[in-house]
Amino acid sequence: MPGLPIAVVPHPVAKLLPDEVAAMARNVIDEIIRIWQTDAEELRAEFREKEPPVKKRLRYRSMFEGNFSAPDAPERLNGPDDLEGVNRLFYSRGWTDGLPIIPPTPERYEKMLGDSGLDPAELLARIEPRQGQATLAKVAINAVMAGCLPSHLPVLVAAAKALGQSALNLKALNTTTHPCTVMALISGPIVEAIDVNSSYNAMGQGTLANAAIGRAIRSILLNVGGGTPGILDRATMGTPAKFSFCFAESVAENPWGETLSMERGFAAGQSTITLCGVEGPHNVNDHYGKTAEEVLLTIGGAMSSPGHNNSYLGGEMMLVLGPEHAEIIAGGGFSKADIKDFLIEQAIIPGHDLSQPQRVIMRRYVPDRLLADGDGGAHIATSHDNFQVVVAGGAGRHSCIIPSFGNTRAVTEVIAD
Amino acid sequence: MARELMNPCGIFANEDLPLAPRRRILGSGDETIVIGLHSNQKANADLFLDNIQELLSERFDNVEFLRGQKAASVPAVFSDEFLDRCHVVAAAFGD
């Protein structure tokens, strides 16, 4: 919104002492009063004349040349006909994740759409923070760039719709200083149909579907949503998970039979994609526990940290059990509900790990988690809703916890056949 | 040589929204001006607005303050009173 009145104060603010905050207020009060009362058109003219500081230190030097997100933006642009030239152009515009992309030629775009008969102009969702229109066409173009196959497109259509669900809180996820990403968990028959990996290296490299679908989601967040690093995506340090974070949950290795998708109300025969706003995965290895309780104590201990958003904002933490841990836990007679009950009881942040400011924040947002009237430790969770349990991975005594952004909820869409 | 490439960018929401009209309202007339101060509750946001409120109170006689808060990292929901009564609003976003 050109001319939106903003009185800028120096960053950072959080560390300031009270006297310093008072001084900051004195320094800016005149500007606040001015912009409350200055004519609106004058404010807009000021905005247009002032070059944003960000332009002076842009990595993406061509980012503001032309406006490819305007209502009258062209559907096509002229670019170099060589791979390296296209990549230089797209990188300079801030349209890539830094890695080479596949040039989205009209031919590749048409091939991605295939003969589905779907309308490329169909609006699937508006992607925050710029509420960019995720039409089928834009999804397909970003899918080409990410290296997807046409068989991946239905997954991305469902992903786009999921990105538009308000419960995900995408505006926060795509702009926060927190190093979080949108993780995609795929379930159902499509896993085998398009070979989404749920086994060895499910969260790592090596599988086309995992890598490309996750990458395409990031491309949509960037090019359709406007989440450009350092501009609107303000992640302090980011995470490798922002390149691509997509895997399938295992059915074969799931001793409980019920997948997360089924827990969320979908049939076993339905293919779904569940998106979660999360950090990268944190490994938990337990090579020596022989009982469910012993393994879960290790997992609970790994969860019990004050340094992730779930500790003081609540929300859903994902627990991905490797098959060997899942077998031990199920073999001990634990259901998924029992796992959650155990973790609610046993996963406690030690009191000596909680600073006073952390306690203040926890009292504000999750007061029922604090022990000893707020002077002791704190539960990491108080409800089954605070956990999502899935099974994935290959052999090995490893599981992982995936803390979420906190103020976000997992969302699921059905993947059309 | 050049070739055609598809534009990957989504059309952003319309930027051309009008700003609310301004008028000189502080320090003139007998009308009580209601100033909304809205915090996202990040560190020092509330303290900053406390200071802003104090400075405005020192400068102007005819002002009343409404304070609002939102939880961190979720969209703001303004109360009806806030929307109906405030002449101007300052929102503080710490992080």
Describe the protein:
The complex is a heterodimer of chains A (417) and B (95). Chain A is α+β, with helices and mostly antiparallel strands and 417 residues long. Chain A folds into 3 domains: 1-50, no CATH class; 83-277, no CATH class; 282-405, no CATH class. Chain A contains 16 helices and 13 strands. Chain A has helices spanning 18-37, 40-49, 53-56, 83-92, 106-113, 136-146, 153-163, 170-173, 190-193, 208-223, 260-263, 292-303, 309-313, 323-331, 336-346, 356-365, and strands spanning 76-80, 123-127, 132-135, 181-187, 246-248, 272-278, 282-285, 317-321, 348-349, 378-379, 387-391, 398-402, 411-414. A 4-stranded mixed sheet of chain A has the order 5-4-6-13. Chain B has 95 residues and is an alpha/beta fold. Chain B is 22% helix and 25% strand. Chain B has a 3-stranded parallel sheet with strand order 3-2-4, with helices on one face. In chain B, helix 1 (45-59) links the parallel strand 2 (33-39) and strand 3. Chain B is elongated and about 70 Å long. The termini of chain B are far apart. In chain B, 29% of the residues are buried.
Order of helices and strands of chain A: HHHEHHEEHHHEHHEHEEHHEHHEHEEEE
Largest interface, C-beta within 8 A: A-B, 80 and 47 residues
Structural class estimated from helices and strands of chain B: alpha/beta
Number of helices of chain A: 16
Main beta-sheet annotation of chain A: 4 strands, mixed
What structural class results from the helix and strand content of chain A? alpha+beta
**Adjacency order of strands in the biggest sheet of chain B:** 3-2-4
Largest sheet of chain B: 3 strands, parallel
Quickly count the domains of chain A: 3
Q: Average pLDDT value of chain B?
A: 87
Oligomer: heterodimer
Ends distance of chain B: 48 Å
Count of individual beta strands of chain B:
4
Strand residue percentage of chain A:
5-15%
